[in-house]
Design goal:
This protein is α/β, with parallel strands linked by helices. It contains 10 helices and 7 strands.
């Protein structure tokens, strides 16, 4: 299927690593020009170099997304370079473990700044260009807003906000032809996920337990699987899809996670 993304400029926050990097690679493979926005210039450059080595195009902008001025400057830098913006993928964020029992108000607010506020700001600063191109927005969100996780109130609240903004923007921007959707991530192997596992005494055992609870295939979702859906949602092939919270998670959120895997069934 041709997604007709050739030469479309799409900003991807946190596009240098993990899910964001996967999204940038798939977009570039489809002929789009991902603009990688993130705080680490070396990581951004490495992501762009890898895409260019594979024959694609990409662009890097260093920005601290917790700073409104830098968010604005990042958008302006992309617009000045290309003269247009056809898509936005809000992806950057971190599950920072600010919980109800162990967190403070200051930590809670700071977490919202890191995980939600820049979603709003990126969309707002991109809006004039998205109106011109009748572009699309995809917000990357997390299962924590729907399932709960424990010990991560701020991150769960931020993701609930991402989901709510997705539907609010879909309504507000409908007359401008701007589609807005969210992709909900559950269990996806990323550098941050690996780092978390490495802090455990029994990482292999914990990973096996997590994978056992994923109904489809008892395995983690890959960043490429998430990226493929993001590319579709940004494309004209999803031209009548807006305001949707789409789960690419092997059935983790909506199917019964108490189901036994095929391997266990065979042993019964």
């Amino acid at each position: 299927m041709n997604l007709h993304l050739q030469n479309k400029v799409i900003i991807v926050t946190g596009g240098a690593k993990g899910i964001g990097e996967g999204i940038c690679r798939v977009l570039a493979a489809e002929g789009a020009i991902p603009a990688v926005v993130g705080r680490n210039a070396a990581d951004n450059a490495a992501a762009v170099a890898a895409i260019e080595k594979s024959g694609g195009q990409a662009f890097a902008v260093q920005a601290e997304l917790s700073d409104t001025a830098e968010v604005k400057k990042a958008v302006e830098t992309v617009a000045a370079r290309f003269g247009r913006i056809e898509g936005l993928v809000n992806n950057a964020g971190v599950n920072d473990g600010v919980g109800l029992q162990n967190g403070t108000t200051e930590q809670f607010i700071a977490s919202l700044r890191k995980n939600l506020t820049h979603y709003f700001e990126m969309a707002q600063f991109c809006l004039p260009y998205l109106k011109q191109s009748r572009g699309a927005i995809v917000n990357i969100s997390s299962k924590t807003a729907e399932t709960g996780q424990g010990g991560t109130s701020a991150y769960a609240a931020a993701n609930g906000g991402r989901n709510a903004l997705t539907r609010e923007w879909a309504v507000e921007l409908r007359d401008d032809g701007i589609r807005v959707n969210a992709l909900i991530v559950a269990e996806c192997m990323t550098p941050l996920y690996k780092k978390y596992l490495e802090t455990l005494d029994n990482p292999a055992e914990v990973l096996a337990q997590i994978q056992e609870r994923i109904p489809l295939g008892s395995r983690m979702t890959t960043s490429e699987e998430i990226a493929n859906m993001v590319a579709f949602l940004l494309s004209d092939c999803s031209s009548h899809t807006t305001g949707q919270l789409i789960h690419v998670d092997g059935g983790y959120v909506h199917l019964d996670r108490a189901l036994l895997s095929n391997a266990h069934r065979k042993n019964l």
